[in-house]
Amino acid sequence: MGSASGSSHRATGPQAGRSSAGGLVRLRGRVDTLCREAFLPRDSFGREIDYLRLSLIDHCNLRCVYCMPLRGLSFIPSRELLAAGEIETVVRSALAAGFRKLRLTGGEPTLRPDLVEIVGRIAAIDGVSDLAMTTNGILLSRLARPLRAAGLRRLNIHLDTLDPERLQKLMRFASLAEVEAGIVAAAEAGLVPIKINCTVTRDFNDADVVELARRARDGDWHVRFIELMPVGGGEPEHAALSQFVPSAETKARIEAELGELEPVPAAGPCDEARNYRFRRGGDGIVGFISPVSAPFCGDCTRARLTIEGKLVTCLFAAGGADLRAPLRAGEGDEALRARIAEVWTRRSDRYSEE
Ligand code: SAM
Ligand code: SF4
Ligand code: SF4
Fold first, then answer.
1. Nearest ligand for residue 295 CA
2. Model-level pTM?
């Protein structure tokens, strides 16, 4: 084996043909990448277009204290949501405009009855370099395998604590058994690596971060601790402000109990977490997402497509460019692509750094 590859420049047999063809393919791939990067739209701060989050639905089967109130919610009528075929068209144009990584989210994306169809349609489009989903995991026991078969690659699963009673108080209506069964089903279906999202909320789960981090130290979990952001107004916004815990405090608590953490290099420019391994531990990783104490908006390469088809260049911005009206008026892929690229090049927001 070693000699075949090591002497390929001199060989005259079929191995040589394969090797030079392989080299040509690699060279062509590199040229394609360079050309693509040269023409990628950049916004007014030079940030490259990269990562698109697609909100599929505003409903949720839970009511996490910092996200949704128990009462007084109203939801968008289903005719106003983008249909599966419309999502496919927008994604095709978004990929042509330069987006490469896609994440499905909500609300709770697994409540969308056509979720497997949506994943299948998106996965079949050329140019998707990553297709992931964020979910509370409750329905994964049933959905993990069909989602994997349709082309979903990875999951982030929301789990705030390993204590069953505190879980119900924080992620209201969730049961630990259901979320844990979802994690197992996802791993068995090959939707890996799984990242666990824990939103740290004072007096609810701020002490439970240690047990979640222990799963990373003693096993191979990847757990990310997220700082609360004030979203949604009313009760959730009040909770996010009054129960805020800075990442530095969460990290210090984990290190005091479980030992020193050492930094791991960022996976890429759109990894919003600062990641660490335990100096004395297994392969697991703990990450800290700190949009309030250490905002990363200056490097933000993400945008969001809302459920009713608005393209928003910050996950927290109001408004956005309406793509649904032109889509329903029959605008084609190329016109949509130009529209999306223009939204990105005009981008000038930096949310937490403004
Ligand atoms: N329902 C899914 C879930 O819970 O993972 C997907 C949507 S949820 C909005 C996505 C992520 O946002 C969750 O992992 C949750 O931890 C996080 N999140 C929700 N409300 C938040 C808030 N006020 N501040 C920070 N993170 C929040
Ligand atoms: Fe639902 Fe996710 Fe919000 Fe919790 S964080 S209420 S699971 S959308
Ligand atoms: Fe980007 Fe900051 Fe907005 Fe998040 S809050 S989407 S990092 S600009």
1. 3
2. 0.88
